[in-house]
Amino acid sequence: MPTPLRWGLLGTGSIATLFAEDLTHCPDAICAAVGSRSEARANAFAREHGASHAFGDYDALIRSDAVDAVYIATPHPFHAEQALRCIDAGVPVLVEKPFTMNAAEAETVRRAARRAGVFVMEAMWTAFIPAVQRTLRLIADGRIGDVKTVRADLSAFRAFDASHRLFDPDLGGGVLLDLGVYAVWWAHRVLGEPKSCAATAIRGTTGVEESVTATLHYADNRQAVLTTSFREQGTRLAHATGPEGTLRLDAPWWHSPAVALTGRAVPPVTETHPFEGHGYHFEAAHVHECLRAGHAESPVLPLDDTVAVMRTLDQVREACGLPAWEARG
């Protein structure tokens, strides 16, 4: 693997900005190039973040010899197509969440990646946040016993704006794929894939879901209770509860600085796990480790798990009576 690893970013929005800023916390990586549909935006982003190359065309970046890996930070509906183009070009790729718009697209990308032997991973950065990893180790060590219930809220108020991608159905708008994917990932990581689900949604004036409540049902009467919304500012906490106690990731749980344990036979304790930057550098560093080791998939976020999360998101969408995604011509 080249050092430093030269990242090319597709997209110039807020998530690309955060990722580029956090690459400064990776000593073996640089933001080398940026691609946008607008050459002017690409040039401005490159100047701001010290990238040597700017492209007014996504394909030009993907096929450039200026990058060693690509981070896809475009709106959701473009993820699958752009991931497939990276795979076709033989370029390792980190795909911003949600990985794709549905499980069928995710399966297509998984199949193509494995056929080509190209590294592909969803940018579920929460998986690499220190407090989240510590919580998962405590669960695995049996500190709260067998987990019976998982809870997660990711409700973050967003003022309605019909022109914003979050509320635009043509750009994959809606809270389920933007925020709800975190909660579903958390449930999957602790309890696995559910056997059934029940869910309700509140739809806004543009037709996208602005609030979703879902209960995922598992064998042995285990459950996950998940809420996500643009309409309100929620607790933004995540819990795992078993017969011996509860583990709580403090707000904002998906990049939490702390985990608290309330036990049946032990006094409450809180561990803090602060970090520099926004938290995106942890996933970038993991990609570097995988590439150095010659892995075609992440052992932490394998593509099978990513496809399974997309299946559950499809099930929640169906339970809510929301229309299946159809690409707009």
TrEMBL record:
Pfam families: GFO_IDH_MocA, GFO_IDH_MocA_C3. One of its GO terms (molecular function) is oxidoreductase activity. The keyword Oxidoreductase applies. Keywords: Oxidoreductase. The keyword Oxidoreductase applies. Residues 133-247 form the GFO/IDH/MocA-like oxidoreductase domain. Coiled coil: none annotated. Residues 5-122 form the Gfo/Idh/MocA-like oxidoreductase N-terminal domain. It comes from the Bacteria. Belongs to the Gfo/Idh/MocA family. This is Oxidoreductase. It comes from Longimonas halophila. The lineage of its organism: Bacteria, Pseudomonadati, Rhodothermota, Rhodothermia, Rhodothermales.
